[in-house]
Structures are given as C-alpha cells and as structure tokens.
Amino acid sequence: MPQHTFDLAGHGPVTLDIRHLVIAGWAGRDRAAVDHHIAELAAIGVKPPSTVPTFYRVASQLLDTGSTVQVPGHDSSGEVECVLLASEAHGVLVGIGSDHTDRTVEAYDVTVSKQMCAKPVGRTLWKLSEVQGHWDQLVTRCWRTRDGVRALYQEGALARLLHPAELMQKWNAAGGLPAHTAMFCGTHAVIGELGWGEAFELELHDPVLNRSLHHHYATQALEIAR
Fold first, then answer.
1. From CA 140, how far away is CA 100, in angstroms rounded?
2. Of 68, 61, 47, which is closest to residue 113 (Cα–Cα)?
3. Which residues pair with 16 in a beta bridge?
4. 3-state secondary structure string across 138-170
5. Residues 115 and 62 sit within 8 Å (Cβ to Cβ)
6. What pLDDT shows up at residue 167?
7. What is the pLDDT of residue 44?
8. Could you tell me the CA-to-CA distances from 125 to 9, 13, 111, 130 in Å, in that order?
9. What pLDDT, in 10s, does the model give residues 210-224?
C-alpha cells in the first residue's frame, strides 16, 4: 500500500500508510446554496448526487506529494481543499491538497472524473487538535496560472464548509477518521472561469496562529490518441 512521508509541523517527519482515499463533495454548510449549485449543474447535464454530502472513493495510489501531475489533455483543473489524514501516533492531521478533476468526464460521471487525475497534497501537516478550536477562521486559497498569467482562482473561509467533525461522523458513524484514511473536505466556488491551468498554487492560512500551509504543482498534459 502507498506510504507517504510528511513533515508534521513542530514534530518532525511522519510516515503515513494511506489505503483509503475519500473525496467529500457537496460539502457546503448552506444547504440552499448547495441545492442551487446542484440545480445549475443538472441543467448542463451533471447528474445530481444521491446524498449530500457525497463521499467518492478513489484509488489511494492517486494521492501525490510531487510537484507535477500528468493529466489527459487540457480538460482538467484543480480545486483547493483541506485534507484530513489518519495517524496512529498523532491523531487526525490536516494538510492542503487539490481535488484535480477531469471536467469533461465530470459532465457524464462524477465518480469516474474523480478517478481520472492524481490528487496533489502538500508535504507539511498540522495536528487537527491545534486548529479545531478556531477551524472556521481558517482560509483556503488557490492561484491558477493560465497562459502564463497567475491569478487568484479560489478563496474562502472554512466556515462556509462542513466542519471536519461532521464530515468524519457522516463518513464513519463511529466518529473519527478510520485508520489508513485520507479525506478531502470540500471546496469553494471558483473566481472567473472554471478550467485548465498550467499550474496551481494552494494555501491554507491560519490567522490565529499566523502560519500557512502551501503546495504548488504544475500540470503536464498528455497527448490524447485519436
């Protein structure tokens, strides 16, 4: 099974054996806004989810701490998300990642689209216990580079998304994050046009403890055989 070594801030390196990778979708706290977005996507052919939130299982091998991801063509894009990772020694840990998704495939099968691309995640983590008391004040941001121009692509406080305790309880009725599991926790709407970029830069900022997690990755488009 895939093992990844991270830097746990203040505690040194930690190696995690991730066997289960889960993507939480439709994870906003405002149910009316979520329903409105579902209706918008349904109008362009995206099948509505059977439950809200929805948990998409993808191959654990897709978790990627590298600086480049290879993707088919130019139909995919990233989206910044907090990532929860189960650790035996330190409890649940928090990182920053991107649910990089094929947007063409998403139009006809969301589950398959989630499986199409690697899921980049930064190498530095925090303990959830260090931030859970002020979780709603944390902010995620994403910058996209398209045609050589870097621009803010997403930004929002985590107060807009379901709290990790609620997500974990909905995924695992016993509470907590099961061993060997990583979970992406939902994202914000994009600023401007959704879609392709040559690179994505991710940030999770903690204004209370005055620190941030960062990750940057480039996309390499693979030629599609015709």
1. 16
2. 47
3. 4
4. CEEEEEEEECCEEEEEEEEEHHHECCHHHHHHH
5. yes
6. 94
7. 59
8. 6, 10, 27, 11
9. 999 999 999 999 988
38 SS3 class: helix
For the beta carbon of residue 148, count every other beta carbon within 10 angstroms: 7
17: exposed, middle or buried (Cβ count in 10 Å: 0-12, 13-18, 19+): middle
- pLDDT given at position 107: 81
> Which backbone phi and psi does 87 adopt, to 5 degrees?
-135, 130
Residue type for position 147? D
pLDDT at position 106, please? 83
What confidence score (pLDDT) does residue 46 get?
73
Ranges of residues in the chain with a pLDDT under 50 are: none
Three-state DSSP at 114 gives: helix
Angstrom CA distances, 13 to 4, 72, 168, 181, stand at 10, 33, 25, 18
In the predicted model, what is the mean pLDDT of the chain?
92
Q: How distant, in Å, are the alpha carbons of 64, 80, 112, 140 from that of 94? A: 15, 13, 26, 12
How much is the pLDDT for 37?
Answer: 67
| Cβ-based burial of 122 (10 A; exposed 0-12, middle 13-18, buried ≥19) | buried
